[in-house]
Design a protein that fits this description.
mainly alpha; two-stranded antiparallel ribbon
Length: 302
C-alpha cells in the first residue's frame, strides 16, 4: 500500500496528498486510519512501531502517534461506534485513552452502552464517557438541538410567529450556528422521497453535510432516483447506510461504497471482500483509478 514511501521527496509528497485525500484528514490526526496502515505494512514495510514512524515521517507521523492509534483501534467496538458521525480525531483519541486509564476498559465499555451518539459532538461524547453532566444552555436561549430537520422546523415556526424573518436573525436570537441553520433549511427544500427516508431523531448535522454534498455532486435527480429505489425496499437502516445507498445505488456483491464529509472534502470509500489468494491490498494507484471510474459514472448518469 505504501511501497513507494521512500522513492524521493516529490513522489512522497504526491503519495502523501493521495493518501490523506483517501483517509479524509492528515494521517497523524486520523488514528483509526493510521492503525490500519500500520497493520497493513507490518512485516513487509516495517517490523515495529519505531520503524513505521520513521517510514511515515513524511506524513507527519511520530512514534507516539502510532502507539496512540493502536491503543485506540484496540478499544471495544461499542466505544468506537460512538464516533462514526463525528469522526475520531487525534484529540478525542487522547481523551479516550486518558479515560480508559482512569476507569478501566470494562467501565468505559459499560458507559458507552448507555450513550446515544445522535446529535452529539465528539467533545459531548467524551464528557458522557467521563460521566460529566451536560452543559446547560445559555440563559434565555432555546436548548441546543443539533438535529437538522428539527432545526429547520423551528426556523419555519419562528418565521410564522414573527419571531424572526431571516436566518441571520434566528441564529443571533437563538445562538444557532449560521452554517448549520443554512444546512437545515437547505434540507427542507429537498424532495420528500429523499428526506422521508431518514429518522429525524437519528439524523445528525454530519449526516446533513454528507447528504447536501451528495446532491451537489450527483445532482438531485440521481439522488432522488436512488432514494426511490431504496424506498421500495422497506427495512430499518441507519442514516449512514441510507447515505451510502444514495451515493452508490444498489450494493454490489464485491464492492461496497460509503461516503462521508470531512471539512470541505467529500470522501468515497470502496470496501472490497478480501480473499486469501490476494497478494496485496489496494494501493493508491488503484484508488486513483476507482476515483476516475466514479467521476465517469457520475457524468454518464446525469
Amino acid at each position: 500500500m505504501l511501497k513507494s514511501v521512500a522513492h524521493g521527496a516529490d513522489n512522497q509528497s504526491k503519495r502523501r496528498t493521495d493518501l490523506e485525500t483517501y483517509v479524509g484528514k492528515p494521517l497523524s490526526r486520523n488514528p483509526l486510519a493510521l492503525a490500519t496502515v500500520y497493520k497493513d505494512g507490518l512485516g513487509r514495510l516495517w517490523r515495529n512501531q519505531t520503524e513505521a514512524a520513521e517510514s511515515l515521517a513524511g506524513f507527519g507521523v511520530k512514534r507516539e502517534d502510532v502507539n496512540r492509534a493502536l491503543r485506540v483501534a484496540g478499544m471495544p467496538a461499542i466505544v468506537l461506534l460512538l464516533f462514526t458521525e463525528t469522526g475520531l480525531i487525534g484529540r478525542a483519541a487522547r481523551e479516550l485513552i486518558r479515560i480508559e486509564r482512569g476507569i478501566g476498559r470494562e467501565a468505559l465499555e459499560q458507559r458507552a452502552r448507555g450513550i446515544g451518539k445522535e446529535g452529539k459532538s465528539w467533545s459531548e461524547i467524551i464528557n458522557a464517557l467521563e460521566d460529566k453532566p451536560p452543559q446547560p444552555p445559555a440563559r434565555g436561549r432555546t436548548p441546543q438541538v443539533d438535529l437538522p430537520f428539527v432545526r429547520a422546523r423551528q426556523f419555519v415556526e419562528g418565521v410564522t410567529a414573527n419571531k424572526w424573518q431571516t436566518k441571520a436573525d434566528a441564529a443571533k436570537q437563538q445562538g444557532w450556528g449560521k452554517q448549520r441553520l443554512s444546512n437545515a433549511t437547505a434540507l427542507s427544500k429537498l424532495p420528500a422521497v429523499i428526506t422521508g427516508l431518514f429518522d429525524e431523531k437519528r439524523f445528525s448535522h454530519g449526516n446533513a453535510e454528507t447528504l447536501l454534498a451528495l446532491v451537489r455532486m450527483l445532482g438531485v435527480s440521481k439522488v432522488a432516483r436512488n432514494a426511490k429505489l431504496l424506498s421500495e425496499q422497506p427495512a430499518r437502516r441507519s442514516s449512514a447506510a441510507i447515505l451510502s445507498y444514495l451515493a452508490g445505488g444498489p450494493a454490489d456483491t464485491d464492492c461496497k461504497v460509503e461516503v462521508r464529509v470531512v471539512g470541505d472534502a467529500v470522501t468515497f470509500s470502496f470496501s472490497f471482500k478480501a480473499h486469501s489468494t490476494r497478494r496485496d491490498l489496494i494501493d493508491v494507484d488503484h484508488l486513483r483509478a476507482l476515483a476516475a471510474a466514479l467521476v465517469n459514472s457520475i457524468e454518464i448518469m446525469q
